[in-house]
Design brief:
mainly alpha, single chain
């Protein structure tokens, strides 16, 4: 699932960058609104830094999990790997039925 996490992090970074650019294009008239906008941008930048650090950990792949996952997907029958992961998800939801998604 590291590849899916990696895809999600890239997507989240793009959304955060878009949010920052939307906020920068706004030109609030009151100082209070400008301060609020700057705080929002600061929060977005902090989130970008956290997500980028997590993405960097995935790319560094110190434990070899990313390489192992891409190897398991690329060799053999891809449907076997898909159904194996699907069974793990279904098993988790059977064990924890009230867990929010």
């Amino acid at each position: 699932m590291l590849l899916e996490d990696q895809r999600f992090l890239h997507e989240d970074l793009e959304r955060l960058e878009q949010g920052i650019s939307d906020r920068v294009l706004e030109d609030p008239r009151h100082i209070r609104d400008r301060l609020n906008r700057d705080h929002q941008i600061s929060g977005f930048l902090n989130r970008i830094q956290q997500q980028s650090n997590r993405l960097l950990e995935i790319y560094n792949d110190t434990e070899g999990l990313r390489a192992k996952e891409s190897q398991s997907i690329s060799t053999g029958d891809p449907f076997d790997e898909f159904y194996k992961q699907l069974d793990e998800i279904k098993d988790f939801h059977r064990r924890y039925p009230n867990e929010p998604v």
